[in-house]
Amino acid sequence: MRDGDSLSIDLPGAVADVLDTLRRDGGEAVLVGGCVRDVVRGEVPADWDIATSWPPEAVAGRFPGSTWENAFGTVTVIHPGGEAGIEVTTYRVEAGYRDRRRPDIVRWGSSVREDLARRDFTINAMAWLPDDGSAAAGRLVDPFGGAADLEAGLLRAVGNPDERFNEDALRLVRGVRLASRFDLRLDPPTEESIRRHAPDAAGLSAERVRDELLRILAGAAPPSRAFALMEQLGLLAVLLPELAALRGVPQSKPLGGDALDHSLRAADALPATDPVLRLAGLLHDLGKATTLANGHFLQHEEAGERLAGEVMLRLRAPRAELTRVGRLVLHHMFTYSPDWTDAAVRRFVRRVGADLLPDLFALRAADDLASGVHDPAVGGWGELRRRTAAVIAGDPLEAKHLAVTGDDLVAELGIGPGPVIGRLLAALLEEVLEDPTLNSRDRLLALARSMASG
Predict the structure, then answer these.
(1) Which of 8, 83, 167, 395 has a CA between 20 and 30 Å from the CA of residue 242?
(2) What is the pLDDT of residue 96?
(3) How far apart are CA 305 and CA 288, in angstroms?
(4) How far is CA 94 from CA 124, 163, 229, 239, in A?
């Protein structure tokens, strides 16, 4: 397929209506960017983006209830029959990128080809222009050969790659994501330019980097493909130096490779539906880079928790994600023996946290798969998983599960509220973890009196 070729698209009704509305009174409106790329690849787009010759105030005036809150001419149209907003952006020309992210000058453009020239990669610099009087027939607008690049399996920057990456350094990471997602090889000049500009990624905002990394981890393509490419291009050492430091750290595993190879395989083995869990898989062995001694990684999980925390803080991850990843890294080296008592299982659940167990077992399965280790049918972590499920379903595991409260202890023992009550509740919980039959009001009060008098 080439520039100007006919192309029919089965448009959602809301998208067709927006295009038709914008094309009245001499206006031009086209589909643009990723949705056109997906159609050319034979896929159904998840999102539909529209570009138009109308200025943003004219777009907003045609669609009551639409919103326009940016300087870049993007209006979000809420269609009565649509489930989500459709973004409509005025053709524009940009110049000057002193902060290497936002253009210093934005002016409205006069043509779709002018608009496409400012985009990052040729596969994203295509548009679809509907034919007059049709909501499905149209032609491809592809001045930079994006369709041919897709056919050739090539990712190529629009125009001069140095100029594109000078405009926005995030395109360095986005290029890696697109290449891995669509299994494309990098055009040599584009690849060379990414290598030259890799140090510029250090100036990217943490939030933008985190979002791109999570998009990689949420993709259908194995994330190892993208992170390996990032390493080859010099981006990994800039964005995730703690992960890059695992290269060359030896592993004694049935599967070959070093600690970085192992970490990438672990991320691959986790579900794309949970990119934060995949991130934990990617970071779970960070401590191995600093703890190798005499062939062992002594307490590498503790060092790894600290390093993973530093990564998450640098990426400005939400507190819940930071805590989740840190806890997984800290506890991923759990061991189990079938001679554990039920009390030992309860203490394990108490130490790790019942909320973390599904994630922890998923991480352990991925860790084993990435190592080439198979869980034994008897006495392995699969057995522990079954035992913890039984414990969680029926046994007291936290102070709130006790048959007495702090108020009960205050009333019955004549002790004022304070740290003593907290210590008594903790001690009672330890007794109940050992023997759940003790969890009755009378028995716990008797135990508390004995503890308080002793």
Answers:
(1) 167
(2) 46
(3) 11
(4) 17, 12, 30, 28
Residue 29, classed as helix, strand or coil, is: strand
Strand partners, 121: 157
Q: How many whole angstroms separate alpha carbon 207 and alpha carbon 215? A: 12
Give the CATH H-level superfamily of domain 6-146. Answer: Beta Polymerase, domain 2 (3.30.460.10)
DSSP code, position 26: G
Task: Kindly give the residue spans of alpha helices, DSSP state H, lying in 64-203.
Answer: 112-116, 146-152, 161-167, 170-181, 188-197
The count of C-alpha atoms lying within 13 angstroms of the C-alpha of 393, restricted to the half-sphere facing its C-beta, is 6
CB atoms within 10 A of CB 385: 17
- What residue spans define the domains of the chain? 6-146, 153-239, 269-395, 400-453
Give the pTM: 0.87
* Residues across the chain: 454
Average pLDDT per consecutive 10 residues, the chain (454 residues; last block may be shorter):
92 91 90 95 93 91 81 78 79 61 60 92 96 81 97 97 95 98 97 98 96 96 97 98 97 92 98 98 96 82 97 97 98 93 92 95 95 82 90 86 90 87 90 89 89 80
For domain 153-239, say whether CATH 1.10.110.30 is its number.
yes
SS3 content of the chain, % helix, strand, coil (to 5): 55, 10, 35
